[in-house]
Specification:
This protein has 223 residues and is mainly alpha-helical. The chain has 3 domains: 49 residues; 54 residues, no CATH class; 71 residues, DNA Binding (I), subunit A. Helices cover 41% and strands 4% of the residues. Strands 1-2 form a two-stranded antiparallel ribbon. The longest helix has 15 residues. The protein is globular and about 45 Å long.
Length: 223
């Protein structure tokens, strides 16, 4: 079986009430009036992205559960970049500040402006991070792959940065069917090993590709 993102259950038939009840359960467990995405992914029965898809945004889910909105004051830089990457992939282009709405982003544009002293500075910081600061985007992430493949094949899962670089190289489209979230919001993209990890494939750019959920599952069924 090929290595890829861990696919989430679709939960299409899960009632809204069950999602909200579990969100409130996590809040009670944490003894808090709100729940962050990271906290829910750690303690929830479902995934935060499943709730975001169902209710349109994380803030909407919190509001329907009677919880307070999350303030992004303590959001880590990795979370900021992860969110920006998700918006970039969904749009298929560089996001503009106006693109960060409740329906597209779980973090507000104002948070980026405060953290990086301006929206343009936030985008520039993200690009520097994605490029590894040296123009050799995979220099840091793939350093471990330089050793003998008989001893070590590098990390099984590509890093957040490498996943973005692979999707950008593939124009944020599925390599097999050409579908993209930019033209069809229901499309979800994943990064897959061309030669499966279990068959000796390594985590390097040349062995990674962008696939949509359907093509990824179809490839898995043929493996």
């Amino acid at each position: 079986m090929s290595t890829r993102f861990q696919l989430e259950p679709l939960n299409r038939n899960t009632p809204d009430a069950k999602f909200l009840a579990d969100l409130k359960r996590v809040a009670e467990q944490l003894r808090a009036t709100t729940v962050t995405i990271v906290q829910y992914d750690q303690h929830g029965r479902f995934s935060a992205s499943a709730l975001q898809r169902r209710f349109g945004s994380w803030h909407n889910a919190l509001a329907k559960a009677g919880l307070s909105k999350v303030r992004n004051v303590n959001t880590t830089e990795e979370e900021l970049f992860r969110n920006l990457m998700e918006v970039w992939v969904r749009l298929g282009r560089q996001p503009r500040m106006a693109d960060l709405t409740n329906s597209t982003s779980r973090i507000s544009a104002d948070t980026y402006k405060r953290r990086f002293a301006g929206w343009r500075s936030a985008i520039e910081s993200f690009v520097r991070w994605a490029n590894g600061g040296s123009g050799l985007a995979f220099e840091e992430d793939f350093a471990r792959d330089a050793v003998s493949l008989n001893r070590h094949r590098g990390p099984r899962e590509p890093s957040l940065r490498v996943r973005f670089l692979v999707m950008r190289r593939d124009s944020f489209k599925c390599r097999l069917c050409g579908r993209s979230p930019a033209t069809n919001p229901s499309v979800e993209l994943h990064v897959d090993h061309v030669t499966a990890w279990t068959n000796g494939g390594v985590t390097v750019m040349e062995n990674l590709q962008t696939l949509c959920t359907n093509c990824n599952l179809g490839k898995s069924n043929l493996a």
